[in-house]
Amino acid sequence: MNAEALALIEASPTQAPRRTRLSDGSNVFVKQRSNVPADFFAAEAQGLDALTRTGTLRVPRVFAVSGRGLVIEDLGSGRPSDADWESAGCALANLHRNSAGQFGFDGAGYCGDTPQDNAPDADGFRFFAERRLLPQARWASERGLLVAQDMKRVEALCARLRDLLPEAPPVLIHGDLWTGNLHACDNGELALIDSAAVHHGWRECDLAMLVLFGEPPRAFFAAYEGAAGISAEWRQRAPLLNLYHLLNHLNLFGAGYLSGVRSVIHRFC
């Protein structure tokens, strides 16, 4: 823990994320927010550490973390070349080679602002249903965002996951890998950021979210598929895997995501 970096968090009022420089010349990015759970930033730091230890995609260094904020390496911003995208595709495939005995993670996490239950489970279908889809659907139902028929369809879909998705082992995934979290550094290299949702899950969950809100160039996916030895059939399953994120966005941002949720549940159930 860098004492100077920690002081940036502890000795200042909570404010918007900002860039600054430490006395040793390190460029850092300070993330602070008020009214977040005590483990909110710790979850992100834990995720960054897990990703860093794979030695695959670039990950910002953590300088300090506390209940009030997080100080990480400022990666700058640049424009990736085709070679950068290809390298990132291969690196993500290598990240997904980091397997585990069970689905889940050592601690709870956050997908955006939503708590994410990572209690371990050896059964991936049960994990995806009981730790991901059903909690989100129940929350939406309780808040009146889903009607009873919607909830019944989600429950029926969860009961059919084994028929709709292939068996796959638990591997380390980013867990919230929309295109904005695949960050282009100042030299064009792609890096993983915002990692509070990291856990052991299905690799196709990362691929699916990368096509939910825009998507990387085809060169990225061609490199991934070549390195992982898979076809592009995962795209057919992506909408179902993205139901978790659509439900999360429904809960976080409101009814504008309801049509997307219903489109998926009507398509698969």
How is this structure best described in words?
With 269 residues, the protein is an alpha+beta fold. The chain folds into two domains: 3-73, Phosphorylase Kinase, domain 1 (2-Layer Sandwich), CATH 3.30.200; 82-268, Aminoglycoside phosphotransferase (APH), C-terminal lobe (Aminoglycoside 3'-phosphotransferase, Chain: A, domain 2, Alpha-Beta Complex), CATH 3.90.1200. 44% of the residues lie in helices and 14% in strands. It has eleven helices and ten strands. A four-stranded antiparallel sheet has the order 1-2-4-3. Strands 5-6 form a two-stranded antiparallel sheet. 41% of the residues are buried. The mean pLDDT is 96.
Secondary structure blueprint with pairings:
Elements lengths: L2 H8 L7 E4 L5 E6 L7 H13 L9 E5 L2 E5 L8 H14 L13 E3 L2 E3 L7 H19 L5 H12 L1 H4 L6 E3 L8 E3 L5 E3 L6 E3 L1 H7 L8 H11 L5 H8 L1 H11 L4 H11 L1
Helix pairs in contact: 3-8, 4-5, 4-10, 5-11, 7-9, 10-11
